[in-house]
Amino acid sequence: MNHAAARPRACRLGWQRVWSLGSAVAIAGLLAACSDKADSGAAGAGAPPQRPAPEVSVVTVEKTTVALTTELPGRLEASRVAQVRARASGIVQKRLFREGSEVKAGQPLFEIDASPYAAALDSALAQQARAEAAVAQTSAQVERFKPLVEANAISRQEYANAVAAQKQAEADRAVARAAIKTARINLGFTRVTAPIAGRIGRSLVTEGALVGQGEATQLALIQQIDPLYVNFTQSTSELLQLRKALASGKLQQVGGGDTAVPVRIKLDDGSEYPHAGRLLFTDLTVDATTGQVTLRAELPNPQRLLLPGMYVRVRLQQAEMVGGILLPQQAVTRGGTGDTVLVVGDDNKPTQRQIKIASAQGNQWLVTDGLQAGERVVVAGFQKMMVPGAPVKPVPWQPAAGASAALAAVPASAASPAASGAVAAGGPASAARAN
Hints:
Layout: H1 3-21, H2 24-45, E1 55-60, E2 63-85, E3 90-95, E4 102-103, E5 108-112, H3 115-150, H4 156-189, E6 191-193, E7 198-200, E8 210-211, E9 218-235, H5 236-248, E10 252-253, E11 262-266, E12 277-286, E13 292-299, E14 311-328, E15 333-335, E16 338-344, E17 350-361, E18 364-369, E19 376-380, E20 393-396
Parallel strand pairs: 1-20
Antiparallel strand pairs: 1-19, 2-9, 2-14, 3-5, 3-8, 4-7, 5-6, 7-9, 9-13, 10-14, 11-12, 11-14, 12-13, 14-18, 15-16, 16-17, 16-19, 17-18
Helix pairs in contact: 1-2, 3-4
């Protein structure tokens, strides 16, 4: 039998008997008896133990210089592209390269039947020999006529005709020499060489194909893929906001200008390309249909890992904020009324605090207002805080393995509350928190 539970019932019955007797002395005695029994029962059962303060993980707010990273979609493009075409018509006799290999500038690639062009060169050489003979003959005649015309042995008209014939022969010789150059150039076209160094693709013709009839037939394609270009676009509204922030001093320019902006890319499998690139230029023309501006960066590709046409995500640091605050995303509760965090005070009691978020930087939020350096913000352990405002035991937060390295930036537009991937919920136990 539970004696502690039976005591209040006995006291109630005693109160009824006393009131029926009407004795004030009995009332005093009963009060003392009930009080003694209650005290002795409480002392016998013992006071319930107090629960220890729940343990929560916190981060200490620090102000630092934050590089504002923007992530944009882009396509890779070869830095140089050359179409190998047949400039001489004829039958392809040989292919002198291995498809998909690296070729050097000037390396022979194809041989076209050269016999017609060799014959044309021989004919031009013969024409030059005839012109040289005519020059020699007319020059000798002018030399003979010169003393005769001075002695009036021949008419001046005959001498003038001889001089004209000499000049005509010299002109014919010049034409013959030019024909020889043309014939040699055409003969050289029968040996097709690489115009640039790079990687050559598949051969577009085979031996025995007739090329160069009416147009310069394309034979192959050479692309220079080290370095590579990556072309990407950015909205004009983001560019204008960035430039206004730079002009007002809220943000600072990275490096020495646009061309010094470092560029990183992320591949389709989510990995980051190990080599950093540099921004080359920002186009001056806005696309009227999309309202975006084209940018181009240059990337080294020594291992030939990247190929033209690949889709990548481009990350570039266009500005940096001095005195910015970064918080893990799971520490922030995002809702319709605003963004809030739990701040642990000096008395180890958490209180809700409203903050302002500028953008997402990887798996962190960039906070611009609402926190001060040195304050402690709860990151994990929200489910342990059953009583609001009760003291907690703060311990330093340790990110999960690999989480600290996953600081990949997202587009500034995606950092807005409307486009953010965070779950909009109110309260410390929000589903937006991972822990």
